[in-house]
Amino acid sequence: MDQRDKDELKKEILEKVKQYYNVAHKPGQDAEYVRGETKVNYSGRVYDSDELVNLVSSSLDFWLTAGPYASDLQGKLAEFFGVHKAYLVNSGSSANLIIISVLRSKQYRNQLHPGDEVITPAVTFPTTLTPIVQNGLIPVFVDCELATYNIDASQVEAAIGEKTKAIFVPHTLGNPVDLDILQDIADRKRLVLIEDCCDAFGATFDGKPVGSFGVMSSLSFYPAHQMTMGEGGAVIVNEPELARIALSIRDWGRDCWCEPGSNDTCGNRFNFQYGDLPFGDDHKYVYSNLGYNLKVTDMQAAIGVAQFEKINGFVDARRDNFNFYYENLKDLEEFLILPKWSDKANPSWFGFPLTVREGVDFDKLICSLEGVKIETRKVFAGNILKHPGFKGIANRVHGTLENTDIIMNRAFFIGVYPGLKPAMRQFVLERIRAFFGK
Fold it and tell me: Tens digits of per-residue pLDDT, 270-316?
């Protein structure tokens, strides 16, 4: 069989894949939604035949490790954020691990050491915090704001101590933190600013993508997020010095930066002295960092390439669903604290957060929604220090965590993802209003 025959056969297979999508995967219409019986998910994957075609095409090429699709998506992400490099990884959690590990690397000129401090909010996702602890650094917890659910930027400067070296902040539920304040503090105090953008892909602050302010940032492509590869994430790197370290830590800790399948990119594979190794030892097998293997497969990246082309539409749909709830719940502010955001921010909403006011039975409200198949979620870990896995960790708390505890006890969010049908969000709205007799 010659190449033309192979190309024709592949084209035929991919046409069948499109047909299969229409039969097996194409979403139904509003009429199929049954109130109180069909689950209203808080989030989920949204895709069409493009993702299936890319996935099958990649599988037919049988490039199982990161390959052409991965290189393509990394380039697109770097261009989207206007940064030096973007590296795909197997999860947003792994992206956070790489970011903190880069700061601890001996190759980093401002290397952080055990006992150095990182300012971060107490309302957080566990794997934003875990890499700080695992790398021997000390988290300094700052309270969060009600309604934005982000770190209270006005308290950050007062939280800085002699050992404070970095600020690591998530943009909670896709709502950008006040980057004017944090960037100014980081610049004046010579602190490293890093961003967790796992919930916030597509958000901007002052017209600039969040994730491009810090020296590094993380993305997640888990199915709940703005785009998905199933499992997956990315490290966004703003500084060339950090890019090589991040790549090394992602790829076993090796010093070599050759792409998979390439050799001797530097032209000096056997011509240098590394540590106590023999002179001329093979550069492909020199390890300069404590690393991992956190790469993706090219099949995952193939899905990501198709999803990336839809990201603007996904984000717009989330904003539209958010605005529907916001406009139609304004008259319930005597019972609920509605979300807020900075005038400079254009959030990419992960969910629609609400905090019930004192006197409202939080558990009863949640059960009234879950009882009719409307999914709710807490604002991630709430107060992370209350969780069993984090009891006894070395830490410092600045001030009180009063708002953090309110968020833990009285806040939740509902979905705004693009898979919501108009009938679904109308039902959610009616159930919330009915609970308050409106």
Answer: 888 888 888 878 888 888 999 999 999 999 999 999 999 999 999 99
Q: By the 8 A CB rule, do 200 and 182 touch?
A: no
| Catalytic residue chosen out of the listed positions 171, 225, 283, 398 | 225
Residue 265 CB neighbour total at 10 angstroms:
13
**Is 258 within 8 Å of 284 (Cβ atoms)?**
yes
CATH number listed for the domain at residues 61-307: 3.40.640.10
Cα–Cα distance measured from residue 433 to residue 307, given in angstroms and rounded to the nearest whole number: 35
Average pLDDT over residues 208-222: 98
Query: Residues 304, 262: contact at Cβ < 8 Å?
Result: no
Residues in Cβ contact with 28 at an 8 Å cutoff, skipping those fewer than 6 apart? none
Contact 89, 98 (CB under 8 A): yes
What is this structure's pTM?
A: 0.95
Angle of helix 92-104 relative to helix 240-250, nearest 10 degrees, comes to 120
Q: Is domain 311-435 in CATH 3.90.1210.10, yes or no? A: no
Among this protein's residues, is 171 annotated catalytic?
no
Structure tokens at 278: 């023999």
Domain map of the chain by residue range? 61-307, 311-435
Does the pLDDT of residue 24 top 60, yes or no?
yes
Give the pLDDT confidence score for residue 258 in this predicted structure: 77
CA atoms within 13 A on the CB side of 166: 30
Check pLDDT > 70 for residue 28: no
Question: Distance between CA 279 and CA 173 in Å, rounded?
Answer: 51
Residue 56 near residue 17 (C-beta atoms within 8 A): yes
* Rounded CA separation 160/279 (Å): 45
